[in-house]
């Protein structure tokens, strides 16, 4: 059974808040520009969220496929294109095929990538990251983390026990984030996004389940957030005041309904369960006060992913737009723009989210793989359809169950690889072919658990 992309005409329901007799041919809100706190203006509200392209060569360098892929997305009309994970240390990778930037050895190709991603007035921001302990043993037998202790549960066997970071090592990683951001700017990327979500290193520092330190980087929320705040300060010092700096952060590691905290002490009053919504709200307010230009809201970790199925449109219909309840809690409490990512599949949902003020940027990822020109379709062709993502299946229930999340990742990586080779996405490709593609590209390590990136 193969994947299938379909569209459906969409009426404007009364529940959207848009009048039934509204002139849908007028300029949509998603086409409006947005000026960031640093003074930079992006041309519209489409925010292509990060996905691991898995296109780096064996030396962790970007390739011509990155250039073609981002040129195609830039031509599709999005205001901001965020790259997949770019690691700040080439010895510490989160997934097969990661790009790593720790010096200027690949500056020429980085410049080509940035130039392609900024065509047609688009912004192209480099997402910078460190995996911490979330680095599969097939590519890293010596991971690091805030504290020692391997991943729990069924995934634990795929990851080596990490070494606890010393203070000098923590300071070196902070320097690396700043260095990578500076190289991104020099190469022509127009912003950076610091990845503090999804169970990677910064998220590990934030989580009381992962961070058992007793020094100034552990214990209270203020201390656990210190690593993130020092990275933001170091990056800002490196790139200057007029360069966009965004942060991707979990609404929580395990979403729950909580009250809005009034202080760091109150945010610390929680039941154990990882970094939670109370704590996230407090950290986001601090980031806003520090002058961060955009907050990209996400959620979940490798051990506790937001979703785990491969059912495509069926999954979308069950979930709708992700993290809206959390976004509503912080709407109006900060001046920093919010990017809400996950579940946007048609213009009606996008306009509703923008008109309500729950978000200022529409974060999308998977729909731009199967329909790279979606922003232009909505803004220029006034397309009122719905992107229906495929149900990715091998046709064998046992394989689907064993490799559900990896199956989805591999399918979308295959499609991005096609675009990177100058071809078009092909929804007829099935899940088994996607798994075989991943093994050919990355070896058996491709089947190790990876953070699910494809839910947006």
Automatic annotation (TrEMBL):
Keywords: Flavoprotein, Oxidoreductase. InterPro entries: Aldolase_TIM, NADH_flavin_oxidoreductase, OxRdtase_FMN_N. The keyword Flavoprotein applies. Pfam families: Oxidored_FMN. One of its GO terms (molecular function) is oxidoreductase activity. CDD domains: OYE_like_2_FMN (cd04733). It comes from the Bacteria. Residues 32-378 form the NADH:flavin oxidoreductase/NADH oxidase N-terminal domain. Signal peptide: none annotated. The keyword GTP-binding does not apply. PANTHER family: BINDING OXIDOREDUCTASE, PUTATIVE (AFU_ORTHOLOGUE AFUA_2G08260)-RELATED. This is NADH:flavin oxidoreductase. It comes from Bifidobacterium primatium.
């Amino acid at each position: 059974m193969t994947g299938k992309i379909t569209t459906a005409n969409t009426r404007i329901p009364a529940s959207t808040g848009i009048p039934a007799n509204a002139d849908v041919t007028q300029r949509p809100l998603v086409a409006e520009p947005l000026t960031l706190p640093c003074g930079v203006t992006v041309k519209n509200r489409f925010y292509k969220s990060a996905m691991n392209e898995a296109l780096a060569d064996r030396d962790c360098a970007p390739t011509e496929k990155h250039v073609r892929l981002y040129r195609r997305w830039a031509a599709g009309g999005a205001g901001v294109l965020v790259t997949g994970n770019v690691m700040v240390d080439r010895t510490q990778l989160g997934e097969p095929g990661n790009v790593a930037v720790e010096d200027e050895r690949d500056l020429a190709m980085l410049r080509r990538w940035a130039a392609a991603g900024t065509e047609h007035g688009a912004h192209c921001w480099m997402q910078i990251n460190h995996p911490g302990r979330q680095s599969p043993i097939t590519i890293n037998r010596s991971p690091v983390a805030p504290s020692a202790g391997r991943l729990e549960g069924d995934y634990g066997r795929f990851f080596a026990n990490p070494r606890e970071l010393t203070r000098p090592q923590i300071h070196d990683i902070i320097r690396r984030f700043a260095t990578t951001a500076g190289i991104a700017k020099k190469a022509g990327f127009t912003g950076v996004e610091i990845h503090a979500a999804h169970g990677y290193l910064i998220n590990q520092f934030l989580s009381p389940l992962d961070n058992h330190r007793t020094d100034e980087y552990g214990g209270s929320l203020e201390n656990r957030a210190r690593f993130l705040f020092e990275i933001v300060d170091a990056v800002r010092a490196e790139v200057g005041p007029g360069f966009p700096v965004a942060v991707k952060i979990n609404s929580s590691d395990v979403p729950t309904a909580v009250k809005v905290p009034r202080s760091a002490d109150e945010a610390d009053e929680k039941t154990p369960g990882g970094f939670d919504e109370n704590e996230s709200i407090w950290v986001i307010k601090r980031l806003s006060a520090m002058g961060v230009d955009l907050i990209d809201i996400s959620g979940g970790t490798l051990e506790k992913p937001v979703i785990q199925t491969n059912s495509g449109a069926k999954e979308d219909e069950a979930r709708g737009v992700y993290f809206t309840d959390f976004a509503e809690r912080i709407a109006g409490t900060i001046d920093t723009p919010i990017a809400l990512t996950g579940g946007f599949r048609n213009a009606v949902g996008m306009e509703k989210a923008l008109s309500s003020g729950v978000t200022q940027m529409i974060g999308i990822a998977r729909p731009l793989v199967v329909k790279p020109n979606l922003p232009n379709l909505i803004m220029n062709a006034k397309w009122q359809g719905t992107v229906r993502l495929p149900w990715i299946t091998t046709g064998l229930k046992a394989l689907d169950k064993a490799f559900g999340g990896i199956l989805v990742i591999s399918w979308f990586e295959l499609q991005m690889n096609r675009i990177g080779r100058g071809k078009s996405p092909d929804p007829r490709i099935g899940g088994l072919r996607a798994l075989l593609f991943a093994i050919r590209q990355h070896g058996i390590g491709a089947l190790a658990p990876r953070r699910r990136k494809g839910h947006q």
